[in-house]
Amino acid sequence: MNEFFKILRYAKPYKKYAIGHIISNVFFALFGTLSFVALKPMLDVIFEKNIDPCTGKAIITNPTAPIYKGIWEISDYFEGLLAYRMHEFTGGDKSKALIFVIMLLVLAFLLKNISGYLANYFMVFLRNGVIRDIRNTVYNKILELPLSYFSEKRKGDIMARVTGDVNDLQYSMLPVLELIVREPLTILFSLIAMIIISTKLTVFVFIFIPIVGFVISKIGKSLKRKSDRVQREQGLFLSTLEETLGGLRIIKGFNVEKLFNEKFKASTQRFYNFSNKLLIRQSLASPSSEFLGICMIAVILWFGGNLILNDASESFLTGSKFLVYIGLAYNILTPAKAFSRGLVNVKKGGSAAERIQEILTAKNPLQDVPNAVEKSGFNSKIEFKNISFKYDKEYVLKDFSLTIPKGKTVALVGQSGSGKSTLANLITRFYDVNKGSILIDGQDIKTLTISSLRKQLGIVTQDAILFNDSIKSNLQLGKEDATDEEVIHALKVANAWEFVKELPEGIETNIGDSGNKLSGGQKQRLSIARAVLKSPPIMVLDEATSALDTESERLVQVALENMMKNRTSIVIAHRLSTIQNADNIVVLNKGEIVEQGKHDELISKNGTYKKLVDMQSFE
């Protein structure tokens, strides 16, 4: 139940709907009970020829207005009042009396259903608002969490939590919000009416209530564990699906369709087995509670029937009262069954809530420190001061130091795993250093707000990350309020306008999922254009040409040279052509600087850099 109350916190902004829902449900439960109580006068009129239809006693020709004598006699007071008013209305005519009680019955059911509609009306806004806010909160948390969190998670599992688990809350846990007030109050009002009619009979009802609760709790105990297995398996086959869609070219190229098909089928088979066990156990709740309820009615019929047959024991229990009592007892069954089913759903939804809470409560080590400084510009230099960093156990960078003056281009080269891309991740604060510090204009980047730090940086990665939208919208990620003229200028700088202007809708052309309607070189030039439009003082180029063919590389290289003019640039290099004009080339090996200098200087040293050039192995 803890998870349920955590979810209820999201209902706070909708308290006006919650209040309306509660009030409506109070009236729903009240009029639901009164609609059964109103059956008694009608039954008396029809079946009891010499009995007053309201009091169950001998007919009084001219009843007088009753006098209220206290709470313990409130039942007799209302019966007398109803008899008095009905006599005023009918003048003692039984046909008119029948019309009167039928009108009361219809009115009670009308008010009950109006209250039920209003309760559902308010619940629509409450329930859908809570679900929307949970989805938004989870998505916002995903955006806030560092990259390190997702390197340990499957994408499919994250997607399953945002979609499947939230849907589970919508259809299993949140419907209980509707039951919290309505069903308990319906049971309470019905029990009060039953106690007023017959205390002895009602004692038997209380005997069966804990029995029903015990059976339902036994059924619900294993639901949470079974539900958790179902949701985890759903995350697994969603991950397989996501990987399949992203790797279809490789799957087909290596003829491993059968392998992936078997992997997916094995996952869905486990999902099938787990789901069957979950639903079978879940389905037990409703018939079990209904059967126990019918057993309760049977006991009432036996015991109440004996009370009527042996009228010496309880002479005031008439046939009409007994029928109304049976109706009230049955009126308890439906809300009791719904409430027990709701408790089962809370158990089932608890697993989904836990998986969602796991994301929401995940620690984010990359947060702004108190009183973090807003960085508004770049003035002098970037410094890496004795930094060390590790992703897991072994350090990728060891006591690394480097100074990059403003306006200079520094290239980082070395074999794969030497720590080049790690430096790009550290200066952008995708990760934090374990030791040492990174300074911009003498300020430790940990003391700056992350947002203002990243405003100073433009990033172009090896994989051109584009979104299923128009060219214009993709570029405006760099500057949201950019005009068409500014977008076109950025495209020209990035050497991309030549192909964009030939597209059917120009900058409004949709480029498809991940930009797949374009070639690799075209996508990369759009990435560069996006960085140009942002116009940051510092550029970070992470192997921006390594995945391109020679012709595309030439076009992109021109774009990069245009972009790097008058900017401080950190270039993680793959090919010689991208760095030979750099102001400083830093050669890394196993996280340490082994050489640095200009291209010609390093070639003349005939060291590590010369070997890399000869092998053309800038990775």
From TrEMBL:
Bilayer disposition of the protein: Multi-pass membrane protein
An example Gene Ontology CC term for this record: plasma membrane
Gene3D superfamilies tied to this protein: ABC transporter type 1, transmembrane domain (1.20.1560.10), P-loop containing nucleotide triphosphate hydrolases (3.40.50.300)
Domain ABC transmembrane type-1: 22-348
Keyword Nucleotide-binding found: yes
Keywords linked to the UniProt accession: ATP-binding, Membrane, Nucleotide-binding, Transmembrane, Transmembrane helix, Transport
CDD domains assigned to the protein according to its UniProt record, in alphabetical order: ABC_6TM_MsbA_like, ABCC_MsbA
Coiled coil residues, start to end: none
A single GO molecular function term of this UniProt record: ABC-type oligopeptide transporter activity
Compartment(s) where it occurs, according to its Swiss-Prot or TrEMBL record: Cell membrane
Protein name (record): Antibiotic ABC transporter ATP-binding protein
Organism, as annotated: Neotamlana sedimentorum
Organismal lineage: Bacteria, Pseudomonadati, Bacteroidota, Flavobacteriia, Flavobacteriales
